[in-house]
Amino acid sequence: MTAESIEQAQRIALSTALATLDLEDVGHATIRVEGPEGVGELGASAADVFEGESIAMPHGRVFGGQVLAQALVAAGRTILPEMPHRMPHSLHAYFMRPGDSSLPIRFAVERMRDGRSFSTRRVHALQHGRPILSMTASFQDPSDGLDHHLTMPDVPYPEDLGSVSDKYAGIDHPRAQYIASRPVDHRYVDGDIMVVPAPDLDGRQRVWFRTVAQLPHDQLTRCAVLAFASDYTPIDTMLRAHGLTWAQPGLTAATIDHTIWFHRPVDPGEWLLYDQESPSTRSGRGLMVGKVFTEDGTLVATIAQEAMVRIKQRDAGTAPGDSSSK
Hints:
By secondary structure, the chain is α+β, with helices and mostly antiparallel strands. It has helices at 3-20, 64-77, 164-168, 174-180, 219-229, 234-240, and strands spanning 24-34, 41-52, 87-95, 105-114, 118-127, 130-140, 184-188, 204-211, 251-262, 272-282, 285-294, 299-311.
């Protein structure tokens, strides 16, 4: 791919990603909780229902960052008309089933509570009538109070690092072309681990990222784009700790849950440093904790993700590539 074709593919990818956040309001639903026999209904709540398209993916599964971002926008759509200054400050999501990237997703939003300064929402992302993600999110009006944050690590500036898109653009392989055409530009301080393992097995990774073009000014969209982008690299840290790469035979990885605390206004259209580390891997699961800083060193978000990471060992005599996993 030429530099011009890379840029065009990236911009198309960003436009497509932003289009998935333009959810359609499709009405209302009622969510009921049924008790055991003889007890009857335990409660019911109304839900606002929205629908969004999915980004086609090479493996056919919905990208986790996409559905996370859409769920946050769906929750925000039930708040902004009445409380336009109330912005997300946290979300906690569980990924329950793989989504089908060829189908749209419906989002049922329950209005759990609207207080004087906080609002809480619960969102279920649905395909085929079953949840693929369940998320709670909280929103807050701006408020005065104590203010401090950790210091950003001393790292090279993004302009001094190579783009992962440029690195893989010339490789004629579907995975490489997918990486090259992402809507987010990634620049690894410690080098990527797509095919070469990390020299240090410390489970630490620092990566600069920003979208390939400027974003709309509204903070809900920018928070959603941060959620979208935050799902690209967490599993890297778990693989780094064990000297593994994304090319490892038999590797199966998938997000289990994802949490974001939004500390300050954020703009992923400008460079952000994602300072990540994996405190633990065990029992087929790995944990990443990351801090997101602006280029001037301001901490804007803290992120945690747990993921399933499994390495299926091939039986003796199994041909390369002839493996499967649950």
